[in-house]
Amino acid sequence: MISSRLFRSASFRFGVIYAVLLMASATALALFLWWATAGLLERQTEAAIHADAQGLAERWAEGGLPALVMTIEDRMTQNVDDDAIYLLTDPLMNRIAGNLQRWPNEASQVGVSYEFPVMRAGMRSLAHVQRYDLPGGFHLLIGRDVEIRAHLRKMLTDALVWAVVVVCLLASIGALLIRGLFRRTLRNISATTTAIAAGDLAQRVQLSGRGDEFDQVAEVINDMLERIGRLMDGVRQVSNAIAHDLRTPITRARTRLEDALLHAKTEDALRAAIERATVDLDGIVGVFQALLRIAEIEAGSRRSSFRRLDLVPVLADVIDLYGAVAEDRDVTLTYVAPEHLPAFGDAALLQQAVANMVDNAVKFSPAGATVRLTARPDSQPGAHAVRPSEAHSGGKIEIEVADQGIGIPADDRARATDRFFRGETARNTPGSGLGLSLVLAVAHLHGGTLRLEDNAPGLRAILTLPVPDDIDPAKRLASESNAVVTPA
Amino acid sequence: MRILVVEDDKDVAGFVVRGLKEAGHVVEHADNGRDGLFMAASEAFDAVILDRMLPGGIDGLKILETLRGQQNTVPVLILSALAEVDDRVKGLKAGSDDYLTKPFAFAELLARVEALTRRGKGDAPLTKLVVEDLELDLLSRQVKRAGLKVDLQPREFRLLEYLMRHAGQVVTRTMLLEGVWDYHFDPQTNVIDVHVSRLRQKVDKPYPTALIHTVRNAGYMLRAE
Question: Are B184 and A282 in contact (CB < 8 Å)?
Answer without folding.
Answer: no
